[in-house]
Amino acid sequence: MDGKLYLCATPIGNLEDITLRVLRTLKEVDLIAAEDTRNSIKLLNYFEIKTPMTSYHEYNKYDKAFYLIHEMKAGKNIALITDAGTPAISDPGEALVRMCYEQGIEVTSLPGASACITALTLSGKSTRRFCFEAFLPADKKERKIILDELKRETRTIILYEAPHHLVKTLQELLDILGDRDVTLCRELTKKYEEIYSATLREAVIHYEEQAPKGEFVIVISGKTFEEIRDEEREFFQKLSLEEHMIYYEEKGYGKKEAMKQVARDLGISKRDVYQKLLHDH
């Protein structure tokens, strides 16, 4: 009978945030796959867990996955843990989970700490709709594509950032997204936990003057629908009526449907659009 993969959430700072179920599972499984065994041994020693460990990280996530699947096929139960938080969230564990399903191996997740959710609940921003982007890509072209997408994002945005890149990233966000409300969380659940709420412009100045320390979770307010509507209105006001019609016709709208859209944008009737177009000609 095949073994099973257990995704075990570990504390993001305070060791008391581990669950009783995770502790029991880590003691009972045959093997623990850890992102960094040197880091995880401290956690295991603290809770007197003697289960053998093996490394599973970004640079061996495929090769090691085959080994782990082989072990589970042989009947071993394996727990996957990350350095801090929930495995497979901004973590190579997602590759192992996918490969387990391909091989018909059962996977279960033991919930617990997660930095992105902890920061979101502390931010004071809307929690009804949010998007998680983790670390922005290092590749310049890919990074620009993501930031341009976020420019019109109406959901609350959650990002991760390292201290030495923080000011540069905040400046990029300010330049592309505009001066949004932001909450920055560092040292979450630890003794020196810090929550800083400001605008992006204020945050840039703050961290230029006070060097950032520790890993950051950045929580940014989404653009409101009113702001999007105002921007659209401003854009359309710069167009002549003919240009406005061409804008929709180039998107594949027929003449009648384009008139309807133009009328909606300008807050006038379709008949008025028709009359103005006739008059201009």
Overall description:
By secondary structure, the protein is α/β, with parallel strands linked by helices. Helix content is 45%, strand content 18%. It contains twelve helices and ten strands. It has helices at 20-28, 37-46, 63-73, 93-102, 115-123, 140-150, 166-177, 200-209, 225-237, 241-249, 255-266, 270-280, and strands at 4-8, 31-34, 53-55, 78-81, 106-110, 130-135, 156-161, 181-186, 194-199, 216-220. The strands form two sheets. The chain has a five-stranded parallel β-sheet with strand order 3-2-4-1-5, sandwiched between helices. Strands 6-7-10-8-9 form a five-stranded mixed β-sheet. Strand 8 (181-186) and strand 9 form a beta hairpin. The longest helix has 13 residues, at 225-237. It is elongated. The mean pLDDT is 91.
In a few lines, what is going on in this structure?
By secondary structure, this protein is of the alpha/beta class. The chain contains 12 helices and 10 strands.
* Shape type: elongated
Measured as a percent range, the helix fraction is: 40-55%
CATH topology-level name of the largest domain: Cobalt-precorrin-4 Transmethylase, domain 1
Distance between the termini: 80 Å
SSE order, as H and E? EHEHEHEHEHEHEHEEHEHHHH
Query: What is the second-level CATH architecture of the largest domain?
Result: 3-Layer(aba) Sandwich
Average pLDDT, to the nearest integer?
Answer: 91
Largest sheet: number of strands, sense, barrel closure = 5 strands, parallel
Low-confidence stretches: none
CATH evolutionary superfamily of the largest domain:
Tetrapyrrole methylase, N-terminal domain
* Strand-residue proportion: 15-25%
Total number of beta strands: 10
How would you write the strand order of the largest sheet? 3-2-4-1-5
Query: Regarding CATH, which class of the largest domain?
Result: Alpha Beta
Q: How many structural domains?
A: 3
Secondary-structure-derived class: alpha/beta
Number of helices: 12
* Rg: 25 Å
